[in-house]
Amino acid sequence: MTRAATVRAVDVIARKRDGGEIPADQLRDFVLAYAREELPDYQMAAFLMAGYLRGFTRRETEALTEAMVASGDRLDLSRLSGPTVDKHSTGGVADGTTLVVGPLAAALGMQVIKLSGRGLGHTGGTLDKLESIPGFRVGLGTAELLDQVERVGLAVAAQTADLVPADKSIYALRDVTGTVGNISLIASSVMSKKLAGGAASILLDVKTGSGAFMHEISEAVELARTCVELGEAAGRATAALVTDMNQPLGELVGNAVEVREAVEALRGERPGRFLDLCLTLTGHLAALAGKAANPEAGRRDAERALERGDGLERFRQFVAAQDGDPRVADDLSLLPQAPSTLEVEAPRDGWLAAVDAEAVGRVAAALGAGRQRKDDDIDPAVAVELSGKLGDKVEAGQPIGRILARDEGAARSAAEGLLATLRWSDRPAQAPPLVHEVVGA
Ligand code: URA
Asked: Which of 271, 305, 272 is nearest to 286 (CA)?
């Protein structure tokens, strides 16, 4: 803590340990002292565990979020004509919605600023997907980012180290101290980055199910509510959709393949749950940003922008603006291709009753599509395709997916891994809804 601080760090920790509420100014001092490296990891770790076990009040969660934002730079978007919007997914599998929602929202007159991270573990990262486009550059300076948003309506860039540095160090500590899964800590981590990103409207896609952080819908709804309250308290128009992640959202899990799926969706050639959610999210963004009377009207506008080809044209402009090859929108063979392909067939007759979506993500990561550690390289071409969806009826031997791999051995073991993630039933199985709940706006 700073020399001026009136309360010792150990007293803050002990108060939380005993279930007390920490006053906002003390919490702020505590977090900022840690961000300045004046507080050792062991004290922050003890505090996080106390908070994980005792919980945080709404006031504490707000103070935590404000302190995290104050630990670094904020993007100043005042020179943009607006309306500025940001969307964020809490992380899923085959969840490349940004690549479709971004261009559609830009086509509807919104200015989309998205600062993203890389994929880790079983979930893919938007930056990795975009970097599979030849030449695509994610390292944009602030002036360049704002110029591009003004010109094209959309920019997706790597989050710099100066934005919410406290979250970076606290998240790393949570990761190794068993304190990730606390709603207040997740909400303050997510929302501090969104608030520092500066957009006036924020839409959250909170995933729930076998491939999400939150396996229970009730927990996901609580996280969504907490995030929306934090956004609204900070003066931003905020809403959240709690959406299903009991199976991969799209059919393709990887990097280049998710760009392919997005392009095909923007061309109107790939109907399904992925495109459905992209249109719904764009509709909600349009309503939040004041571009549509309500989310349903916004969705209809998004459908029209898709049909006119406006979304695909924005995608081309966005890719070109970040030095990527815009011809990928018309020629998907320009994306990296894996040398080995293996069809995966249904092992029996029946209905697809359950998918361990997290395990599907892990199969793709093990092929090389994801990373286990922050500095691992990824292979942009390898992928898992699962075209079967929950509730589908299949016959033994029917194709349900494909593996795209570096070699036959890797493809075979990934095919086995993929089949192990699926559970079949002799009776008709229900497909889950796409959107479980809408919170806010
Ligand atoms: N994503 C984040 O940014 N932070 C969390 O704590 C969890 C998911």
From this structure: 305
Q: Judge contact between 286 and 292, C-beta under 8 A.
A: yes
Could you tell me the two tokens for 96? 């490349």
Ligand 1 center–CA 438 separation, angstroms: 20
Are 237 and 107 in contact by the 8 Å Cβ rule? The answer is no
The single-letter DSSP state of residue 432 is: P
Contact 192 CB / ligand 1 (< 6 Å): no
Q: Which residues of 231-249 are buried (b: 16+ CB within 10 A; e: fewer)?
A: bebbebbbbbbbbbbbbbb
101 in Cβ contact with 299 (< 8 Å): no
Strand 84-89 relative to strand 201-208: parallel, antiparallel, unpaired? parallel
Dist. CA 236–CA 203, nearest whole Å: 10
Task: List all residues 6 or more positions away from 275 whose beta carbon is below 8 Å from its beta carbon.
Answer: 100, 265
- Whether the CA torsion 152, 153, 158, 159 is positive or negative: it is positive
Tally of CB atoms within 10 A around 252: 27
Cα–ligand 1 centroid distance for 231 (angstroms):
15
Q: How far apart are CA 145 and CA 187, in angstroms?
A: 26
Please identify which of the residues 71, 189, 192, 210 carries the catalytic annotation.
189
- The pTM of the full predicted model, rounded to 2 decimals, is 0.95
Ligand 1 pocket, mutate which of 52, 88, 90, 230 (most atoms under 8 A from CB): 90
DSSP code of 327?
A: G
- Tens of pLDDT, residues 13-55: 999 999 999 999 999 999 999 999 999 999 999 999 999 999 9
